[in-house]
Design brief:
By secondary structure, this protein is mainly β.
Length: 685
């Protein structure tokens, strides 16, 4: 199957590359990163091949306190009251752009709802964002008056407290933004609980390891940033930004253990501690130049540095003690250059992105390890329409490498073919075919290790390499504007060389390490329904059924299982009062060789608005405990079963206060490149 798929995507690349070149040379070609394909309007929504564009009624604008509340009225979006962020029903990763510039929830809150002209909702992200998010939102605003904008948000709760302050000043062609934030996970007397069992063999010895575990995590996080933007619409745009983050996270774990070796039983106690301190500064420079009425050149360079100090300790009475004293320094540079040409309703853009990382890992007692990685990508994208039929073609060529004697250099194509056909104003069919690659985390390729119990380690694997995934999806949508929307799909996804945690026996010990599986696949369906029976009530549900399969080696046995996640959201508004309820249900998902229970989301939130203030009360898991279980599949040489109760979340109360003022200009910009490095280089404990 995999060779046939590779041959199929290679054929697509060879066929369409000359076609794209020819189209780019035509007078009426369109080259831009904000695609404009099939455009059909129904009510407040405009449909395109890869996105929907949403416009808002005067009543919707009047009811929203700020820009984020207005955007959250789009079907499949909501404000997650637990994290205070914009989210989808299923919790997919969202990238927010404001006039093309990567932004945050706080930035969106600074914009008055009346200044949002429209929102482009990409459920198939443009090619330059495909490896960054599942959904891309581009919020288009009108110009505001010169002045100040600001917002303050605070939460005080039993489990965590949070505070954010943001301020921006716009004057002429300049905009200055400053933000600071803090987050505190409290060290509570309430501990999360877990019962578990390990069963495994070493040589002729049989081990059984049963435990009752109590664990708690706490720490603090501080962040801040400043950005300066200078530009003239239709001429140039220049932005410089600097951000910093500081994290100190701690973990404490106690175990009561019943241990048996070849039937001989005994009892032990175990402890584990993990203390990680991370400092992360980031510096970004962006420049855009309008070459003509139809062409633009954009460049972006991002430099990130992670400094991690990690101290971990594990022990069991009468058995072992192990210490991890690790200092890591990870530096990365990401550069991107994109040329865009736009005219009428056809689009084309082409670019290059290079990402280079260097990790220096100093493990006490083991010396220094250096890991260098690189990822380079060339891409092009074209879209157009012919009547009710429209299409988008994204073609990419990517090289992933790791330097050194145990390194690798692997080349892969990453094309996307998106076809759509409009049946009528309310019904639309789309077909999506794509491919993408994933690199291991830099610590997964290191030589570091820690003892997690007797004869059992977690370690890195220098031989692990990138994986390649292929996706086929048939999508259907039905829409009655502002009333009822259904989105459904049938899909088949498979991943070659899947990155997963494997059990490896080496000498007289077992090791849990990252490896590449021969094949992983998902076959199933997904449906999202949004229903507004009345103006004051909104119901949303996201339900899936997936058959998941993993095969470790080409000659090995495959394991398959079903996964049925359900995500539910209900919200109601009466005047200045609003009530929202979010629940997650689901069975077990296949994560490598584990069948893992879905960690749930459950809360009730009540808020009251008064002028520029909002007061809120929240309760997490008000109806049931946050419990789930994990277990290894039948193929594994080690059996591991756990039952977890996250007691720190059960019936947790929190109170929020937010205040904002909006009196400023959102300076027009069209920054269309944004890069970041999220791999911190911390060793996974």
């Amino acid at each position: 199957m995999i060779p046939r798929m590779k041959k199929f995507f290679t054929t697509i690349l060879l066929v369409f590359t000359p076609v794209l070149t020819l189209l780019a040379q035509q007078q009426d070609s369109v080259i831009t990163e904000i695609l404009s394909a099939s455009v059909i309007t129904e009510g407040n929504i405009t449909y395109k091949v890869d996105r929907t564009t949403h416009f808002f009624s005067p009543a919707e604008v009047k009811a929203a306190r700020d820009g984020r509340e207005l955007v959250a009225t789009i079907p499949n979006l909501l404000i997650d009251k637990q994290s205070n962020t914009l989210a989808t029903l299923a919790g997919k990763k969202i990238l927010i752009l404001i006039n093309g510039i990567k932004s945050t929830d706080t930035d969106l809150q600074l914009i008055p709802a009346s200044k949002i002209k429209k929102v482009d909702f990409y459920d198939v992200p443009p090619v330059q964002y495909m490896d960054m998010a599942d959904v891309v939102l581009n919020i288009i605003t009108s110009r505001l008056d010169t002045g100040w904008n600001g917002s303050v948000y605070t939460r005080v709760g039993q489990m965590y407290s949070h505070a954010d302050v943001a301020l921006s000043r716009v004057s002429g062609d300049n905009k200055l933004t400053v933000n600071v934030g803090s987050h505190f996970n409290h060290k509570r007397k309430v501990w999360d609980e877990e019962t578990g069992e390990f069963t495994y063999s070493l040589g002729e010895d049989e081990y059984q390891y049963e435990y009752f575990q109590k664990q708690r995590e706490w720490g603090n996080q501080y962040s801040g940033g400043v950005a300066w933007l200078n530009g003239k619409p239709g001429d140039y745009m220049f932005q410089v930004s600097a951000d910093f983050s500081f994290y100190n996270n701690k973990m404490e774990r106690n175990r009561d253990i019943d241990f048996a070796l070849n039937g001989l039983k005994g009892t032990r106690s175990g402890v584990a501690n993990n203390d990680v301190t991370t400092l992360k500064p980031t510096f970004d420079i962006y420049f855009e130049k309008t070459l003509s009425d139809v062409s633009t050149l954009m460049a972006d360079v991002t430099a990130t540095s992670y400094s991690n100090d990690q101290n971990a300790f594990t022990s069991e009475t009468g058995a072992f003690e192990d210490v991890l004293d690790l200092r890591t320094r990870k530096n990365s540079v990401i550069g991107e250059l994109v040329y865009s040409y736009a005219k009428e309703n056809r689009t084309f853009n082409a670019g290059y992105r290079g990402s280079f990382g260097f990790l220096r890992s100093d493990l006490a007692g083991s010396g220094v390890t250096n890991v260098r990685t690189g990822r380079q990508r060339l891409f092009g994208e074209y879209s157009s329409r012919h009547g009710s039929f429209s299409y988008r073609l994204s073609l990419g060529a990517e090289n992933n490498m790791k330097a050194g004697d145990d390194g690798f250099s692997r080349f892969a194509f990453s094309p996307t073919v998106l076809l759509s056909y409009r049946l009528n104003k309310r019904n639309m069919l789309r077909l999506r075919l794509d491919s993408e690659t994933s690199m291991p985390d830099i610590q997964q390729m290191s030589g570091n290790r820690i003892l997690i119990m007797e004869n059992f380690y977690r370690r890195g694997n220098a031989d692990v390499h990138n994986s390649t995934g292929y996706q086929t999806k048939l999508m259907y949508s039905y829409n009655i504007p502002r009333k009822f929307i259904v989105q459904a799909d049938a899909h088949y996804n498979h991943t070659a060389d899947l990155l997963y945690d494997a059990f490896a026996q080496d000498g007289n010990a077992w090791y849990l390490e990252t490896r590449n599986a021969h094949l992983y696949s998902e076959t199933g369906m997904n449906m999202i329904v949004n229903y507004l029976p009345w103006n004051w009530l909104r119901l949303g549900v996201d339900v899936s059924a997936d058959r998941q399969t993993i095969k470790e080696t080409a000659l090995g046995e495959a394991f398959s299982d079903w996964f049925f996640p359900v995500y539910l959201n209900v919200s109601a508004v009466w005047g200045d009062w609003s009530l929202s309820c979010r629940q997650t249900f689901g069975g077990k998902m296949l994560d490598g060789l584990y069948r893992k229970g879905l960690e749930k989301v459950s809360y009730l939130s009540l808020t009251y608005n008064w002028k520029n203030w909002q007061f809120g009360a929240q309760c997490l898991f008000p109806f049931y405990d946050d419990e789930y279980s994990n277990e290894t599949v039948s193929l594994t040489p080690v059996r591991h079963v756990t039952q977890t109760n996250l007691r720190t979340k059960n019936r947790e109360f929190g109170f929020t206060i937010s205040w904002f003022f909006q009196r400023g200009k959102e300076n027009y910009s069209a920054k269309s490149l944004e890069n970041s490095d999220f791999d911190s280089g911390v060793f996974r404990f």
